[in-house]
Design a protein that fits this description.
690 residues, alpha+beta, 13-stranded mixed sheet, six-stranded mixed sheet, 16 helices, 25% helix
Length: 690
């Protein structure tokens, strides 16, 4: 007797495929990170495995959904569907079609735009000709709508998507750009960053970045990726998109790198030179600092190099204090280091590693925008702004030729002491072209892309949600006078002159802010953010409570039982806190104590607590922001009082900490009278000459 197989193959309709693909790429784990629709045959097979369907089923499902007007009209029509167009609920309904367009880009061979249309026609069972699809130019609208949905509608909560391809590849370039990096290459990027000495605090130019990626990425990147990076044409849209994609990954990298051979991770950072330049005395003093996007250890770092031990602590904004000899606590004289060969330092527990990248040319800028005094080393030259160059002798001839033809105020600082042997210092008022030097010395090349990003602020949760009392700043890099930044279509002003924009304090809370960088009528970059004033405290958290003996409570607590989970405390009557007492200092946390008279300032723990005057303010230094706390005996006895101070350094420190030009210090909380007193101190500080 014949057995008849009555099993019916499971099918997935287009909407299910669409949501499966969308959820794979856009989810809470990708909050704040760049998303690329890297769709492959293996991915489609994996997504359909639970239903017993695979790659060919997906292709057939998309083909079945196509009407007589063709795939492009069908895809465009899904975006125009009133349910999506006006409600914007769920995932965009056209992601399945975009996935098919990415599959046609392929993952093998070179990134060829000529081969794109034949591949797409072949996927759809048509003759593989290079004739463009009707209405394919309209697909750019879908990609731009996806960008708006991810970055504006969702505020980056599920990931950030950029559709930036322009020029001759504007139509096929966006789907091809999704395949520029494989998952394996993405996973290898932190290793390449660490070996190349790249870091997010000071980004190198695109040309310099590409050179370093080629040099250090040969064991990790595909041949076609390396070939694209080796292209020298600045107008190659795919090369530009590839580098921008890599830089996006670099900007979210906190330095953590896996070391598979040792089965552990290590945090990488960069060593940067800092310079105190006295032009009158013609002397330069060089120190060395660590930079990292990772959180510094509370107790600082002990670093080793060539059997010597050094130490440093966190200073803020990703920078350490000057590195000191552990033996005598004196700052390293960085002029004694070999700048051409570089330097490597590791922590005693091998968990941290910092590198001074090898280079015959060092670029320095004023450190004010970074919150540092003096000159600070950066990874690229600013266009149209002042900077300094420390240059090895062999490079001087070409640089002097470049300075004469392409710069203004190009000056060699003769007889400056304190430089390493064979090095020279140049001062440049502005550079207007990099044409002569960019091929020979990529570190002197200009940035060719425009970046708009958020810096600082206190983030509430994943996505772009920030507390209103500590909003982020908007930073525009690579722009010029033609690029304007808008907040809810209102033009913002760059008061710093360095591409740093501040949000108005009058912006109402809990309002979506749409940020756009525009060049003429074209929107170059855009995203949204929220400033939140209040947020609900979660009471139903699936985490055990801790009792009054710090033991985990496994049984259910009633409302009267004492217990704590995070900031949520139950069953305890907390006594009122006396704000007129000094808060306990955590470990080696830096506290700046400020008195009511000019010059009354002490930085703890570097200095002992004052005994001849009483502090009014304790300014606690943090990694993202500082907090001013009242610690005076009474408001009446704490009014500012101008007096003569002969110690110019103390006078300068007193004035600097009160004026807070970088807007890092949060005002006192809890009483409006404290805010009024803080403002009085700031007004008096402006009157002080120091």
């Amino acid at each position: 007797m014949k057995t008849i197989n009555l099993s019916v193959k499971t099918t997935i309709n287009y909407s299910e495929w669409n949501d499966k693909i969308a959820q794979h790429f856009f989810n809470p784990e990708m909050a704040g990170r760049t998303v690329c629709l890297y769709v492959t045959e293996d991915l489609i097979n994996s997504l359909g495995a639970s239903k017993g369907v695979a790659y060919q089923d997906f292709i057939q499902t998309v083909k079945n959904a196509i009407n007589i007007n063709g795939i492009c009209k069908k895809a465009w029509g899904s975006m125009q569907n009133p349910q999506w167009r006006y409600q914007r609920q769920g995932y965009p309904p056209y992601i399945g079609y975009l996935a098919l367009f990415v599959l046609a880009a392929g993952t093998k061979g070179d990134f060829s735009s000529k081969a794109y249309y034949p591949r797409l026609r072949e996927l759809l069972g048509e003759e593989p000709t290079s004739r463009p699809f009707p209405h394919f130019d309209q697909m750019q609208t879908l990609w731009k709508d996806l960008e708006k949905w991810a970055n504006v509608d969702k505020s980056g909560e599920l990931g950030i998507f950029n559709a930036n391809i322009t020029g001759r590849l504007v139509h096929v370039g966006i789907p091809i750009a999704q395949t520029l990096l494989t998952q394996r290459e993405l996973k290898a990027l932190p290793v390449i960053f660490a070996q190349a000495g790249l870091e997010p605090i000071s980004l190198a130019s695109e040309r310099h970045t590409a050179c370093l990626l080629v040099k250090h990425g040969r064991n990790y990147l595909r041949r076609r990726t390396l070939r694209l990076l080796e292209e020298t044409s600045e107008g190659d849209e795919l090369r530009h998109a590839l580098i921008e994609r890599i830089v996006d990954e670099l900007c979210t990298w906190d330095g953590t790198t896996e070391i598979p051979s040792e089965g552990r991770t290590q945090v990488y950072g960069v060593l940067r030179l800092c310079c105190k330049l006295d032009l009158i005395a013609k002397r330069a003093s060089f120190t060395l600092r660590c930079t990292t996007k990772h959180e510094f250890p509370e107790d600082g770092l002990i670093l080793n190099s060539n059997h010597d031990s050094y130490s440093c602590t966190e200073q803020g904004n990703g920078w350490s204090s000057p590195i000191r000899w552990e033996l005598n606590s004196k700052n390293i004289d960085a002029s004694q280091l070999d700048w051409r060969q570089g330097l490597r330092m590791e922590s005693t527990d091998k968990q941290w590693c910092f590198k001074l990248p090898a280079s015959p040319i060092r670029v320095f800028v004023e450190g004010r925008s970074l919150g540092l005094a003096g000159l600070v080393e950066v990874a690229r030259i600013p266009k149209g702004l002042p900077f300094y160059l420390a240059v090895q002798q062999e490079c001087c001839s070409l640089l002097e030729k470049w300075g004469a033809s392409s710069c203004e105020g190009f000056e060699k600082l003769h007889t400056v002491k304190g430089l390493p042997t064979g090095w020279h210092l140049f001062k440049v008022a502005a550079a207007h072209s990099d044409e002569i030097v960019k091929s020979e010395y990529p570190i002197l090349s200009f940035s060719t892309s425009i970046r708009l990003y958020l810096e600082g602020g206190v983030r509430l949760d994943r996505g772009n949600y920030f507390f209103k009392f500590a909003p982020p700043k908007l930073v525009l890099q690579g722009g010029d006078e033609s690029v304007k930044v808008y907040c809810n279509r209102k033009l913002l002003q760059d008061k710093s002159g360095e591409g740093i924009y501040e949000l108005s304090p009058d912006i109402p809370a809990d309002t979506k802010l749409e940020i756009e960088a525009c060049k003429g009528k074209d929107i170059i970059k855009r995203f949204s953010l929220f400033l939140v004033e209040h947020f609900p405290l979660l009471t139903s958290i699936k985490t055990p409570y801790i009792d009054n003996f710090s033991s985990s409570v496994t049984t259910n607590l009633d409302d009267n039982s004492p217990g704590v989970i995070g900031a949520l405390v139950k069953g305890v009557d907390c006594p009122a806190f006396n704000f007129n007492t000094l808060l306990p200092i955590q470990g080696k946390q830096r506290i700046v104590f400020v008195g009511k008279e000019p010059g009354q300032v002490a930085i703890y723990p570097e200095e002992s607590l004052p005994i001849d005057w009483y502090p009014v303010w304790a300014i606690a230094k943090g990694s993202l922001f500082d907090r001013a706390m009242f610690c005076g005996t009474s408001l009446k006895e704490s009014e500012p009082k101008l007096s003569i101070c002969k110690d110019k350094k103390k006078l300068f420190d007193w004035r600097k900490n009160l004026l807070d030009n970088h807007k890092r210090t949060l005002p006192p909380i809890g009483d409006i009278r404290l805010n009024q007193l803080w403002e009085k101190f700031q007004k008096e500080a402006k009157r002080v000459q120091g």
